[in-house]
């Protein structure tokens, strides 16, 4: 078949790294060509996504200090999680997340990892690519991050341009039309045909607890998931070592941590309790034809689109591992998976009522699995007991880490389901 590639060493199909005869496979056996800086851009690009749009909403429902604490905690735990992944992969020389699952728990672990990766990336980004290698993508990753810097700059600028209380856009002064423009029921008066927001709503809160606080950890977890992309980026790193890749991960997470906090802070200080789950949608309530915001929308769309190769790489391999584990590379299947993913995601975007539901469910299910639970249990199972006994400090920490992930998942899902069933989520209206 002319569409079949007999060379099983194509990047997307390699499960184990090349190694010399009789030697244990290691990452250093693969000749990576990606520089340190490009790898930082690639991983930062993998972290960044639509999750940044929900962070101001998360801050509005936790307060500035509580949000900062939770953001710091999730970022730090993500770094530790990557440390566990790198140590596990170093023991067995495996370059894919789902293959670590297979090594740890057989087909069950492989399927669980594959499903979690698929859900996370379908929920987070639109995916379509024919690319087989990741190395040169640092250039598009840099441009993508530049688009998000533009988004952040616009959010900061708008904070000093939009007054509080702000006036919502209204085409006429009729009560019915004015009412249709109020989505969060915080308005208390009218002025020249515009809806005015109560001044008492314009003071920042340091600590806040309400029914929507339950979405905070899922949104943060959703925003920091990059773990399925770590191993492919590690493999293509020039002169790779675990310490070097951990350093890359720490820098990438620190950069995104800074961007996330600034975007959340200035988005929150612009709209306070009126901020919606999708930050850019809140700006359209003031002026849907604002040129700067329209440009920002385009920039965010461009940034998310340029993350496609980084993100699709593991999700498509996860699907192939689950459905076609013993098949050689085939271009028709390769393209078909991408087209089906794109079609499904477009339908999801069209028919999903809002972005908060996606943040909540994906962030409370697949994200804790990929960040907390899977790396910890893979580490416990893969690292030999003669090297690290079950009662050793690293494995005890890993077990506690997995337990923390389970706790986050159960608590978040419970509160979100309660919020849905009571109908108290004002943000769940159609956007």
From TrEMBL:
Location of this chain's protein in the cell: Membrane
Occurrences of domain Amino acid transporter transmembrane (ranges): 33-418
Entry's transmembrane regions: 36-58, 64-86, 107-124, 136-157, 251-271, 291-313, 334-352, 358-384, 396-418
GO molecular function terms attached to this record: L-asparagine transmembrane transporter activity; L-glutamine transmembrane transporter activity; L-histidine transmembrane transporter activity
GO terms under cellular component: plasma membrane
Biological processes, Gene Ontology terms: histidine transport
Keywords carried by this UniProt record: Membrane, Transmembrane, Transmembrane helix
Principal place of residence: membrane
Membrane topology: Multi-pass membrane protein
PANTHER family, per the entry: AMINO ACID TRANSPORTER, SODIUM-COUPLED NEUTRAL AMINO ACID TRANSPORTER 3
Protein name (record): Solute carrier family 38 member 3
Organism this protein belongs to: Sinocyclocheilus grahami
